[in-house]
Amino acid sequence: MMNDDKKITVLAAPLQGVTDNVWRMAQHEVFGGVDAYYAPFMRVERGEVRRKDLRDVQPERNAGITLIPQILACQPDHALMMVDALKEMGYSRIDINLGCPFPPIALHRKGSGMLAYPDLVEELFRALADVEGVEYSVKMRIGWDSNDQWHDILPLMELIKPCHIAVHPRTGKQQYKGELDMEQFEALMAASSWPVVYNGGLHTVEDIDEINRRYPGLAAVMVGSGLAANPGMFCPDAKPDDYRRFHDLLVDGYTDLLNGGEAQLVRHLQDIWQTFLPDTDHKLFKAIRKSRTLDQYRNAAAAALAALG
Ligand SMILES: Cc1cc2nc3c(=O)[nH]c(=O)nc-3n(C[C@H](O)[C@H](O)[C@H](O)COP(=O)(O)O)c2cc1C
Prior knowledge:
Layout: E1 2-3, E2 6-7, E3 10-12, H1 21-30, E4 36-38, E5 44-45, E6 48-49, H2 51-57, E7 67-68, E8 70-71, H3 76-88, E9 93-98, H4 103-106, H5 118-129, E10 135-143, H6 150-153, H7 157-160, E11 165-171, H8 182-191, E12 196-199, H9 205-214, E13 220-223, H10 225-229, H11 240-258, H12 262-272, H13 282-290, H14 294-306
Helix pairs in contact: 1-11, 3-5, 11-12, 13-14
């Protein structure tokens, strides 16, 4: 992937339920090609930072990779609680989620839902700007329910001086469907004093080359579902055996992590196939979905992975 003969920086997008530390370490070990991984958002629940979220970003579980934790909050005190916990773990780079479109979150004015409330974003940014020793980035949509709401958000970036803004050019209301609004993306990029990262719909290395040619000023690209579908996306020599090894690492990692009974483990492994290897033959995929025991799952997954060659 070239940008003016330089390799463009590749960031792995956060995907809640997919790109956790088990996935990240397996992707890094088997395939690589990612410059930094963004952790799925952490949040405060019942007055505490969720333990599961803290565990996911523990430095010892993420050794050897560059990991940027992400926070999702509307209330400044919740955001500061997470920032403090992350600082204590040694993090000095934190990503702020202004992009999540999931209605239970966005309708509570969090994630992309906050984009319709610049006053809340301002309050949040003012509180975060007061923290010393932390550099922020922002991951955002172009708006919540209108594609031009970013106009009121962009000037607020001055408060936190982000090292970049990653933009997914859809509104929150669009969720993951519908046209990518490249016109608004271009306008945002032109208006931004901060480096801009493109995110959305990059499924192949060719897609990345194309977006680079189109926008040579991009600071980086961020790849989500494309990389979840094909974790070997940046590894042109990847062999079927590499995908099997990647899958083995997931099975072992989740067996250790979940440690909570076979049914939960099987459900989690089945969920991986919602995004992983989407070209899997329908019958083989169905066998994975229908498996009830770990043995059944292993057999079904082995058949799907054998079909790779
Ligand atoms: C299942 C799922 C979970 C996601 N979780 C997060 C998240 O935790 N934080 C975030 O900023 N974005 C999250 N996203 C959005 C992705 O990071 C990304 O912005 C989006 O999928 C568009 O990029 P893509 O087309 O490369 O996948 C999630 C998306 C999906 C589909």
